[in-house]
Amino acid sequence: MSSATVESFLPPRVAPNLARAWGGLWRLTFRRLLLPGHWLLLAIGLAVLTALFAGGSRAGGSDHFIDWTTNFYVTFLVPVLSFMAAGGVMRDEMKSGTVDYVLTRPIPRPAVLAFKYAAHVICTQIDFLIAFGVVVGFAAAHDVPGLASVAAKFFFGQVLMITAFSAFGFLCATITSRYIVIGLAYGGIIEAGVGQIPTQLSRLSMTHQMRELLAVWLGRVEAHAASPGVWSTAAIVLAFVVVVLTAAAVIFSLRELSGPADA
Question: What is the pTM of this model?
Fold first, then answer.
């Protein structure tokens, strides 16, 4: 039987459709927000967050609350939780069952990763909106002056930190299932180490960038010529996201994901 005859019996190939791919990945990602287990974990997390705020911001007035929220919530807790959540989601996408379902579709792997990242970040921002309500509530309890302006600045920092560290979580998860080890090494070397060096090298630390911006923005330190600006900080963070996601897409495209192996 000729190849032409064989091909005549085969069904037509499915044409790639990026819009449908985005819609499918969005629905799969958003569906997790509707699960009872997700809301239970979120409720537990909010209870812990409330206890941390009640304990950590008890002493001092509004100035102490602003400093504590900047250094603990915006530039520590949000990045850590965003990284862990993103890494876990990406590892789920690389399991054999999911690979068999998703990666057999005629969609380029970089597009799958980009769509999954976008959907995950949107859902994570929704989750953290609830946590942000706790922040605003405690800010009101501490009589923080200019509450609307302060809340907007903290929210801006939260959005950028979620965007940046979710991307880094995706990168580490594409490298290894032990992505937390890489995250700890990065946090110790870059965020806690290089970020504390009073030179231009500290710009490599995303949390240092955000702490400096919020300190100036909220009037905690005096602005000077070298002080970070809103747009420059946002540009640096977004450049970090682009570089990290590009690296993740390259690794994700080259990895052999068939089979049950998890490395």
Answer: 0.86
